[in-house]
């Protein structure tokens, strides 16, 4: 059979228009490439290389410090006065300070019993501890369940208070602030805070409170998180790698060198006098914990981190929950930096060295540069150099420095070393959301104060999975599964990879195709745990 020509199905006018459009785009590209694109790309590369060097120096500095701490450093109970609180025959239980335990929660149907049960099981004289459940739930069924749980423990002789509000103003910060206004709190010296999915061991207070009792300069004792569901899926393993580095290195270095680090919002004990002196809880950002920590530090208070004490908790296992959490954790610090940078500079109580540490290291490099550089350099600029071959990224900036930084990050979780490549790809995808959130925080744009509570599944996933096996009419919600930003970046990377495959010589397309695939997988929603619709 005679081969059919293209014109049989495609009109000549269309072909002409298509060729004309391609020619016009080619002419436009050739005109703007040399005078505009090339200089702009070179400037961007220089800026990205500078940010990479800043990150490299920061990571290297922390690596050196953590090695010195492990080899020669003294443990917290040696650096500070520490001895267990002993029973006194004459004083009785009054030898123990009054401790308030706050548990803020919001519609925590699946996990509320875990934290309440763990808090009520803390080893401390029953007349020297008050458990305060701050329930902001909007689901009346959940509120009734939480209240009944509190009544159940109260019937066993536990001093537990169930507190509610008629609004959610200030979200978590507002709940904590409202809880501190109760009359019985005036008798308390310290406050331990646990989110609804946190389960402290029974000896938690016995190991942390002595640091505050015997060292009047210490305001905060922060402990480490232990993830009970890190093996649930690949996404939770990736989170474990990032957070283990945070606790193993960042918190440890901050505690040992400057007696300062960011409060993690839970699994910590505060001196109530320090909270009051710092101005109490504020809801001006989505990181009320970091806000309080910075203000207390500027008043001269010291913090101590205890990596040996681990509190069990749950990682977000659905991508939706993780995205919202990362938005809050990236937007909040950037917005707090904007609000507090001048206050830190003008402060008279702390040394110049500590100011530099807080502004440059703690905020600028870790909370802003780290997010922006990861996305702009590796997902935008580096692929763009494929299209403009006269602009070259030096190997030390494009390969060596990122490789060293990645290896240094991996020290926190040695068991996941074989997942390092997956972690790099996943972190590059998440840098898209973190960069967007960071810019929103710096500019105070829309969603700057968006607070969506991180969903916890507890043991509910097992029940839902069993229920999902029952026959029912399938429901497909495409809008909930598709993430257009990820898909758009994936298409950009795939295009750059294809161009490099066709015309390039440096095999960059290998990285671009793999990274594009990671964006596609997450863009189509195939990451994390799937929760069957009820």
Provide key terms for this protein.
534 residues, alpha/beta, Spore Coat Polysaccharide Biosynthesis Protein SpsA, Chain A, 9% strand, globular, disordered N terminus
| Major beta sheet, strand line-up | 3-2-1-4-6-5-7
Total DSSP E strands: 7
Q: What do we call the CATH homologous superfamily of the domain at 76-317?
A: Spore Coat Polysaccharide Biosynthesis Protein SpsA, Chain A
**Corresponding CATH architecture of the domain at 76-317:** Alpha-Beta Complex
| Name of the top-level CATH class of the domain at 76-317 | Alpha Beta
Terminal Cα separation, in Å? Answer: 57 Å
How can the largest sheet be summarized? 7 strands, mixed
Tell me what portion of residues adopts beta-strand conformation.
5-15%
Question: Helix amount, in percent?
Answer: 55-70%
CATH fold title of the domain at 76-317: Spore Coat Polysaccharide Biosynthesis Protein SpsA, Chain A
| Radius of gyration from the alpha-carbon trace, in angstroms | 27 Å
SSE sequence, one letter per element:
HHEHEHEHEHEHEHHEHHHHHHHH
Low-confidence stretches: 1-10, 463-476
Question: Outline, from the CA principal axes?
Answer: globular
Question: Can you count the helices?
Answer: 17
């Amino acid at each position: 059979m005679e081969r059919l020509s293209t014109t049989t199905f495609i009109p000549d006018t269309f072909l002409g228009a298509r060729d004309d459009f391609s020619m016009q785009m080619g002419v436009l590209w050739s005109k703007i490439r040399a005078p505009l694109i090339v200089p702009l790309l070179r400037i961007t590369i220089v800026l990205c290389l500078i940010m990479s060097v800043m990150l490299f120096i920061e990571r290297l500095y922390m690596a050196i410090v953590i090695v010195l701490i492990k080899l020669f450093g003294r443990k917290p109970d040696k650096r500070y006065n520490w001895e267990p609180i002993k029973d006194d025959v004459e004083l009785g239980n009054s030898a123990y300070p009054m401790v308030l335990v706050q548990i803020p929660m919001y519609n925590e149907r699946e996990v509320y019993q875990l934290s309440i049960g763990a808090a009520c099981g803390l080893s401390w004289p029953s007349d020297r501890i008050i458990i305060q459940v701050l329930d902001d739930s909007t689901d009346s069924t959940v509120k009734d369940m939480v209240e009944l749980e509190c009544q159940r423990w109260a019937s066993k002789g536990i001093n537990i208070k169930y507190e509610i509000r008629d609004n959610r103003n200030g979200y978590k910060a507002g709940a904590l602030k409202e809880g501190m206004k109760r009359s019985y709190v005036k008798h308390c010296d310290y406050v331990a805070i646990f989110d609804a999915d946190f389960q402290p061991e029974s000896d938690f207070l016995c190991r942390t409170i002595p640091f505050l009792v015997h060292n009047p300069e210490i305001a905060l004792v922060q402990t480490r998180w232990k993830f009970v569901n890190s093996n649930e899926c690949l996404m939770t393993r990736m989170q474990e790698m990032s957070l283990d580095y945070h606790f193993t290195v960042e918190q440890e270095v901050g505690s040992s060198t400057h007696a300062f680090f960011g409060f993690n919002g839970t699994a910590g004990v505060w001196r109530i006098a320090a909270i009051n002196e710092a101005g109490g809880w504020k809801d001006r950002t989505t990181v009320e914990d970091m806000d309080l920590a910075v203000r207390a530090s500027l008043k001269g208070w010291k913090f101590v981190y205890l990596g040996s004490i681990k509190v069990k908790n749950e990682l977000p296992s659905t991508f939706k929950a993780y995205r919202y959490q990362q938005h809050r954790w990236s937007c909040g610090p950037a917005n707090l930096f904007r609000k507090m940078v001048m206050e830190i500079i003008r402060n008279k109580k702390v040394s110049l060295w500590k100011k530099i540490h807080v502004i440059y290291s703690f905020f600028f490099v870790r909370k802003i540069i780290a997010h922006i550089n990861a996305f702009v350099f590796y997902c935008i600029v580096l692929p763009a150099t494929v299209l403009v071959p006269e602009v070259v990224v030096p190997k030390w900036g494009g390969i060596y420095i990122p490789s060293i930084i990645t290896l240094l990050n991996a020290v926190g979780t040695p068991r996941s070393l074989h997942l390092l490549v997956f972690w790099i790809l996943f972190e590059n995808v998440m840098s898209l959301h973190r960069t967007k959130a960071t810019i929103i925080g710096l500019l105070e744009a829309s969603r700057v104060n968006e607070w969506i509570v991180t969903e916890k599944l507890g043991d509910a996933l097992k029940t839902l999975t069993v229920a999902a096996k029952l026959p029912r009419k399938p429901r497909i919600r495409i809008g909930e599964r598709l993430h257009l930003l990820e898909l758009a970046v994936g298409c950009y990377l795939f295009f750059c990879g294809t161009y490099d495959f066709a015309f390039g010589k440096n095999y960059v397309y290998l990285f671009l195709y793999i990274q594009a695939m990671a964006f596609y997988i997450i863009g189509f929603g195939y990451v994390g745990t799937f929760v069957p619709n009820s």
